[in-house]
Structure formats: C-alpha cells, structure tokens
C-alpha cells in the first residue's frame, strides 16, 4: 500500500482502514509499506500478526534500509506482538472482553503514542483469525473495540482479511458489516485501484465479494452434479457387483437385466440369460407361474424357495425376495433378489442323515439345543440308559430332575457354554435314576460335542455314550491283580533287603571267628615255630579261601544292588595284571600249574578301578586253576584290539559244554561237579567278573571247543584317555611314616579270643596294650590307662563302637586316635566311621601290616 494512494484522507490520523487480499505476499508487502512510513519518521509502529507474517514483514522492513546489519536501521520503534497470544489475553467464553482488551492492547497503544508526542500506525489481523475460526460476530465486536480505542488515543489502524473468508453468499452480510466498521476499504490486489477514486473502493470490494460468492455457488452446483453422477455410478456398481444375485424382469416375463453375482451363481454369460423368459430357468413351472401372478397383483414375496437350472445342468436351491414397479397402475417390471441356499439345503439334508444315523447308532445318542438343553433327538439306547422314553421336546433338567447336581447335566452345560468338547471315560448314570433298574451298576464313556451354527456359535450339544461296564469290571480285576503284584513285589523287596542284611551279618559273623585265627597265625609266624610250618601254610590257604568266598559273596550283593563305587585312576594294564597274578600265585603253586604271561610292560595305559580289575583277572585265574587238572597250563595275555584293551585267560582244563556257555556268567550257576566238589566255589566268581567288567563299560565272553578242550575267557575294556593332572597318586595304607614307636593301645572286643590274640600281637610289636571286653569296662579303665590309640570293635553289646568312641573322647584328658575293627566292610560303613571321627576302618580279619601302618599314621602323644 503506497501512502500516495490513500492520501490524504485515507491515512489521516484516526483512520481505521481495511485491506482485503488474495495472496499472502501482497499483504506482507502492503503492511511493510504501511509501517515503514511511521518507522522512517521516528514514530511508532505496532505489528499484531501471526508468526509467519511477523517474520516476513520483519525481513521486508529490514530490507528497506539496504544494510546487512542485524540491528534495525530505522529511527522509529517497532512493537511486534503475536496475534493468537494477544487474543487469548482478552477472550472470555469465546467473546472479546473490552476491559481486558483495553488492558492488553490499549496499554500498548498508549505507550506507543509517548504521551501524544509520536504518531502511531498499527496493523492487526486478530479479526481475521476470529473469522477463520468461525466467529464473525466476535470479529465485528473487536472492530468496534478498536474504534472506541481510537477515541482515546490518536493512531492509524490497518486491518486485513483474506477474500477467501467471504467466498460464499452466506458471508455477504458479514462482509458488508466489516466494510461499514472501517473509514476506508481497499479491494483485493486483483483490482487496479484508479487514482483519485476514494469512494469507489468500497463498491469494488463489494462487487469482488459478490463475484467470489457467485463463483463459489457455481462451483458448489458443479460439485453437486458430479456427486450425483458419482453416486449413480456407485449405485450401478453396487448393484452389478453385489454379493447377492439381482435381476429385473419386464411385464412380459423377459429378463431385462441381471448382475454378475446372479450370472456367476447359475454359470451363464449375460447373452445367454438376459433377453430370455424367466420361466426357462425354473425347474418347477407351476411355481414360476404362481410367482409371476402374485407379483402382477402387487404382492411382495419374501424368502420364497425355488430351484433354478444352471448352465452345466446342475441345480441351485435359492430363496426369492421380489416385488413389482408400477406406473399409473400399469406393471413396468419386477425386481428380484436371488439368494443361493444350496449349501444350507445340503447342510439340512446332512443333518437329517446324521439324525437318522444317530437313531440307528449302536451306542446311546442324543441331541439337545438351546440354553435349556431341550432334547431334539434321543435314540432307544439313550432312552434305555436314562430309563425314560418321553425325552424329545423337553428340557433336560425338567425331564430328568433326579440328575440335578450330578456330573452329567454339569458336563452338558459346560460344553454348551464354552463350546469346548468334553470326554469322560467312565461315568455311572443308572444309580441316580428312579425309573431305571439300579440293581446292577453300569458305566458309560461320554463324548459330548458342541453343535455349531455357521457363525461358529454353539447352539446345542451332541451326546454319545458307550457302555464300558465290561471294561470297568475288567479294569477293576486288573487293578486288584496289580495291587496283589505290588504286594508281592513289596514282599520280594523286603525279602531282598532281609537277604542283604543277612549277607552283611553273615560276613560280620564269619569274619569275627576268622580274626583270631589270622592273628594266631601271625603270632606263630613271629615266634618262628618251624615244626608247624606246614600246618600254618594249610591253615593260611584255607583262611584266605574263606575270606575270598566272603568277599565275593558280599561283592555280588553290592553290585546287584548298584552299591559299588569305582575308584578310577590311570594305570598301566601290566601293573594291574601283576597284582592279579600275585593274588592267585598260591593256588598255582598248590596245583603245580605252569603260567605263561604275554603282557607288554608299558604302552597300555588304562583308566579305571585297578583294584576291581585285579579282582576280575584274579577270579578268572582262580577259575582256570580250579578247573584244570594238576600240572596244567594257564595263559594270561593282554593286547590292544582297536580302541579297546583285550585280556585273555586260557587253560587246557576241563572245558565247557556248548549248553553251558550262555549260562556260565549267571549267579550261583555251576557246571556238573563230582560228589567230592574238588573244584569248590559258590558259583559267584564269574557273575562278579561280568558285573565288574560291565561297570567299566566293557564285555566278557567265554569260549570253549567242548568238554576236555579247555576254556578261554576274554575281557574287552574301552580305552579311556586319562585327564592330565586329574589323578592324585593314591596314598598307600601300608606306608609307615615318622611316627613309629611304642604306643599305649586300648583294645575293646567282645570276642575274648580275638581280643587276647590281637593284644598279644601288638605287644609282640612293642606296644603297651590294655584289653577290655565291653564298653563299660573300657570307659572304667581308660581314664587311668590314658590310651594313645583305641582299637574298637563296632558291634559291641550295650553300646556300639561309634557311641563308645564319643564317650571316650569325653572322659580322656589326653589326645587319642581311634581305629574301627569290624566285620562290616561296605562303603557306607567306612563313610560312617569317617563321619564319627575314626582315623581308620579295618575289616576283620585284620591284615597285620595294614594295622601297623594305620597305627603309624596316627601321631604319637607324649607318654
């Protein structure tokens, strides 16, 4: 806006001007020119606009000075405010409040006039924001506030409205009101304002508004016509592509139109269907004649069943909904919806077939529908099961009230409510029914399935019940048999436990008398009694044999119960086999056999329990010695067999019959022996061999060409690479230490012979010994004797050795070591001794060297 255009009247002080515009760039330029006139004259300019307009006008004002500095070049003062924020200061309930307006805007204008010494030009577009928000009345009221503010302060005000706000005839009155509230009106930029025409602006602006409104009306009418054509097209498309079949038939019965769904349903092309008489496609000609007559008389058909012919010769079951269109009482055409119900017809047919099958089913069957579970079908077996024949058409709870609260109605209700099938394998129904013969209990397996509508919702239940009375009775017999079997197994287990306890006690009782015998032999050897050397050797051999029998018997018992723990380490096979030969050497000398050994001294490192493997090979050697006549030949070999180590013990003895080979490793199995039982044994050695080899993951087999041809036993063990550094060298029980010397030893044993002989043996080795035969005597003498070591029999009367050790610790004032002497040698017994604080656990009969070594490991206390 150039000042020359509006001068002199338009821009005189107190003027209230309005500028209409079509483009934002135009109003930015006009406002910048308007405000620039004040700023250049060192006056004040107020800019109340949107952020976008403020920024653009600010850039334009800065450009007027031609300087690149960010500081304002003009001498006047520019006061810039945000239009939306300023509005918020005086709008109350969607209306401007004048008192708040005076406080918010009037104060700014008063400050800008500088007590009337400066001219002020103000631009505001708050009224335009109100019109854009749909509040023209609020905008008019704000214009009036500005006019009254001009009566208090002298300033020139410019307002601006986009012409787009008045683009319809509905906004014409608001437009005229805006113009009337201003002293000057400037039309939009599309009109070239002629010079010297001060009054024509208002007229032009009004004409512009009317033109804009007319254009808007024309555009609205054109849009309405386009909308009408679009909707007609959409309706045509809807009918053509509707999912339901549709057709129109003329008054003469000729098909005038059909949509694609109807054509697809019957399989016709449009040319094969449209233009032909509708009766050609009806299977029932009487039906179509009746339908056309009813429609011609103005009747409406709803869900009329019919059957139509398809192009491929098939038939479609449909439902017809149709009525007629009349003009001046004359039939013009009929319109028809054709719904394909073929699937439903087939489903209904299937349901009828299903119901027929259920009625003839060899199991009890029933159908119930609705939340009340009304019987729709119940075959004869179901009626027999519940003892009623009048079920159909009645609710379950009403016709069978005696079942209320039982499992059956609850099951039916749950299936109906959840839609999930339920199977109950065993349910008794008859005892609940008064009308049924309840003398014999009968059981049924129930299978309850939901009946579902096409939408998946359950509308009923189907019940199938199979009589399983015979199965239940059979199961009960089986359960009784299983209970009896469990009882017998418990008895067998108890017998097995009793056997194990007996074997343990047997070992204890056998070892107790052996202990004094072995001790007596040791004393005889120490005294050098040469006259009885032969007798000593015989006794030693027989004692060793008896000890081996006891050990084998207990080993087999432990192995069969899985109680053996292998103590694995890495060893050379040659070392283990040497120990085996040493264990059997006395028998070889006694029977004068020749033993050939072919074992590499090194190179066959094996990981396992060397003691158990030595026991295995020793048993095989002993077996070969016994079943080979004196002066025979036994061969021991070891070699690598692929990834395994193989060990063979072969002899030229009695051999094995072919029938014996599969059974030779069975527990207590023995071949035929003469009345003298010269070979001896209990039949447990080879069973022990097999179990110990299998514990190591190996196998053992027996070979023989028959009686008199000798035997060979081959053991194969997997080679296991040792874990470097994982094996600690086992401590030797027989290695003495630096604690050799005389000790005070308390021996407590209720076997007088065993105690006396053990005391004599210990005294012969330089120890001071005090003997007690029961725990009370031991407690009485111990305080005066001050023992350094106590050898305690575990199986003592009154209190066992474990309790005696605990009480001795309480009464002794000086340290004392404890060694257990017992006939119980299982791992559990050793662990219990260790847990009770014993320094050693020796099994009777005691090896004297092991006893002395154990004594030497116990630190000696001062005398």
Could you describe the 3D structure shown?
It is a single chain. The chain has 863 residues and is an alpha/beta fold. Helices cover 44% and strands 22% of the residues. The protein contains 26 helices and 30 strands. It has a six-stranded parallel sheet, with helices on both faces. The chain has a five-stranded antiparallel sheet with strand order 10-9-13-12-11, with helices on both faces. Helix 6 (126-132) runs antiparallel to helix 7, helix 18 (533-560) packs across helix 21 and helix 19 runs parallel beside helix 20 (610-626). The protein starts with a helix and ends in a 6-residue tail after the last helix. The model is unreliable at 1-9, 673-680 and 721-739 (pLDDT under 50).
- Please outline the major beta sheet: 6 strands, parallel
Q: Give the amount of beta strand, in percent.
A: 15-25%
Number of helices: 26
Question: What percentage of residues falls in helices of 4 or more residues?
Answer: 40-55%
Oligomer: single chain
Q: Evaluate the radius of gyration.
A: 60 Å
**Class computed from helices, strands and strand pairing:** alpha/beta
Kindly state the mean pLDDT as a whole number?
Answer: 84
Segments where pLDDT lies below 50 for 5+ residues?
A: 1-9, 673-680, 721-739
Major sheet strand order: 3-2-6-7-1-8
What is the end-to-end distance? 131 Å
Shape: elongated
Strands, count: 30
